[in-house]
Design a protein that fits this description.
- Keywords: Lyase, Pyridoxal phosphate.
- The chain has 2 domains: 97 residues, 3-Layer(aba) Sandwich (Rossmann fold), CATH 3.40.50; 91 residues, Rossmann fold (3-Layer(aba) Sandwich), CATH 3.40.50.
- Helix content is 46%, strand content 11%.
- It is globular, with a radius of gyration of 18 Å.
- The protein starts with 10 loop residues before the first helix and ends with a helix.
Length: 205
């Protein structure tokens, strides 16, 4: 079995993560896409979709946000959290905080989708609107230090990748003999976790 470069992403750790967050996330369905146009494109192959839009908050992001909060030492479990995001990660952090009984303060661009801003507020998060990303990250560090809040990064942390890795575990456990996985890429957190899981479960992918 191939091993990932990062020891925190070995399959055992990813399965532990799945157990850790299972009470707070949905096991989203996998659907075979049988549209005639798709069948023409794939020929004898089969195309499946992982319906992660049915996840809590509507995206995969709660997997990582929750795992960041839940992997902290016991003495830090009550620390409040903060994050920068254009939308989905902010909503996920707000959801995680609400679920775990802590507070969230999220920084979003002033021109962010009003629905996403409102969704964060529905989960009880305090939303600060900023003019640019550099301002956001500078303010994030200041808030974390002054208010003793934990920063939850949207993609650049082992707990985040472990969280997204649980999605790969679900796919690999449900479907055998996969040839190719197509994953959307933004910051890299989703594909990093999914690929780490699936290459261990099905090395020929």
């Amino acid at each position: 079995m191939p091993q990932p470069d990062h020891p925190e992403l070995i399959l055992e750790k990813l399965r532990q993560t799945a157990s850790r967050i299972e009470n707070y996330v949905n096991l989203t369905p996998i659907h075979r896409w049988q549209d005639p146009w798709v069948i023409d494109q794939v020929g004898d192959g089969e195309l499946y979709l992982k319906l992660e839009f049915l996840q809590q908050t509507g995206s995969f992001k709660p997997r990582g946000a929750l795992n960041n909060a839940l992997t902290r030492p016991e003495a830090e479990r009550n620390r409040d959290v903060t994050a920068v995001s254009a939308g989905n990660h902010a909503i996920a952090v707000a959801y995680a905080a609400k679920t775990l009984g802590i507070s969230a303060k999220v920084l979003m661009h002033r021109k962010a989708n009003p629905f996403r801003i409102a969704k964060c507020q529905q989960y009880g998060a305090e939303v600060l609107l900023v003019d640019d990303i550099n301002q956001a990250f500078a303010l994030l560090e200041e808030i974390a230090e002054k208010e003793d809040r934990m920063i939850i990064h949207p993609f650049d942390s082992a707990p985040t990748l472990q969280g997204t890795g649980t999605l790969g575990v679900e796919i690999g456990d449900a479907l055998d003999d996969l040839d190719t996985i197509l994953v959307a890429v933004g910051g890299g957190g989703l594909i990093g976790g999914v690929a780490s899981a699936l290459k261990q479960l099905q090395p020929t992918i």
